């Protein structure tokens, strides 16, 4: 269960590994918001997320809302099968957001 960050100039990509569930929401929320606030072009890499639930989706929506509030666009640089399956089950379309 790691959170890593890579930067290229004004762009930063936060990579979340392991669970993105209610059990990690308190840990992940400040890290996600800090990454969004610190970057002119925030991005999340969710390709290594092993479990994803409604709390994970709420975290994504909070990060997206914060980015919009700051006049930025949050980019998803990958979504694992767990993220895609949960979003499909919940009726959330990520295809327009994932690069």
Structure explained in plain terms:
The chain contains 3 helices and 4 strands. It is of the alpha/beta class and 99 residues long. Helix 1 packs parallel to helix 2. The mean pLDDT is 86.
Number of helices: 3
- Report on the biggest sheet: 4 strands, mixed
Q: Residue share in helices? A: 40-55%
Radius of gyration: 12 Å
Strand order of the largest sheet: 1-2-3-4
Main structural class = alpha/beta
Integer average pLDDT = 86
Task: Look at the structure and give the CATH class.
Answer: Alpha Beta
N-to-C SSE series?
EEHEHEH
Number of strands: 4
The poorly predicted ranges are: none
Q: Which architecture name does CATH use?
A: 2-Layer Sandwich
Number of domains: 1
Would you tell me which CATH topology applies?
Answer: Transcription Regulator spoIIAA
